[in-house]
Specification:
The protein is 62% helix and 5% strand. By secondary structure, the protein is mainly alpha-helical. It has a 4-stranded mixed β-sheet. It is globular.
């Protein structure tokens, strides 16, 4: 058993949580991909026309993961019970989207003053996936351990019953239009993820992006199942594969817009 009192154990615990975080990102990516299957195809069609071998292996993998994480859950301290979040009215949804839009603009202006352009190495790593114009426009900020503060409007959202709000202080990166802020240091995956959102802002526009995000979040209650976020995680996972080939993120985003998947 590890103990915080033992200096060697502290290092091991930090490594444990680093690897847990990486596993969580991969699980979120798989969750998002599965969520998109659920939205687009019926279970009957998947079971009847899906590749039987792929389905079998997917079921086995999901079952093994469920068994493992369920055993971990049984060892965790009991969580506080939560009250289901209420359904928002149309005026409340519009107000929330406006609030998020204002927040993103304010944060963009705040961080733009200290942001820097991408360096040559970062552009070289991202050019197979993003346009030169976007890579020239985007600015980045490394907080190096500091954190983007929790949005002020979260208190009002929590008062309405929403508890699974995006934890901005724990995110690797946050995209404020064309400014990407990193809570710690810039990594390839975090930069790619942030750039996907920058493309979404360009293609959809700020107001439509916020409206789609708020409505989907109010429905699913989890930010990583919102299609805008799910697509970013899915593309990030594709980018991180060892043999990832070149692809256009803008084309992928426009395809999802055309298919009304956001």
């Amino acid at each position: 058993m590890y103990s915080w009192e033992n200096p060697d154990d502290r290092i091991a615990i930090l490594q444990l949580n680093s690897e847990l975080r990486q596993a969580q990102l991969e699980l979120i990516s798989a969750h998002c991909a599965t969520h998109q299957l659920r939205l687009r195809f019926s279970q009957d069609d998947l079971a009847r026309f899906g590749d039987a071998e792929i389905l079998r292996k997917s079921v086995e993998a999901a079952g093994a993961l469920n068994e493992y994480y369920s055993s971990l859950e049984r060892r965790m301290p009991a969580a506080k019970s939560t009250v289901p979040a209420p359904k928002l009215t149309e005026p409340q949804l519009v107000e929330a989207a406006t609030c998020v839009s204002s927040y993103l603009r304010e944060q963009r202006d705040h961080y733009a003053a200290v942001a820097s352009p991408l360096n040559a190495h970062q552009k070289a790593a991202m050019w197979p996936y993003f346009t030169e114009a976007l890579l020239d426009q985007v600015r980045v900020v490394e907080l190096k351990g500091a954190r983007v503060p929790t949005p002020a409007f979260y208190e009002k959202a929590k008062a309405l019953g929403f508890e699974n709000l995006p934890q901005v202080t724990h995110m690797d990166s946050l995209t404020f239009l064309d400014v990407i802020v990193f809570n710690e240091i810039i990594t390839g995956r975090a930069l790619f993820h942030g750039l996907v959102h920058a493309v979404q802002f360009q293609v959809l526009g700020l107001e439509r992006y916020c409206d789609l995000f708020v409505r989907c979040f109010a429905n699913t209650k989890f930010h990583f199942t919102v299609p805008l976020e799910a697509h970013a995680f899915s593309l990030e996972s594709r980018f991180a594969r060892p043999a990832a080939g070149r692809f256009s993120v803008e084309e992928q985003v426009r395809l999802w817009v055309k298919q009304n998947r956001y």
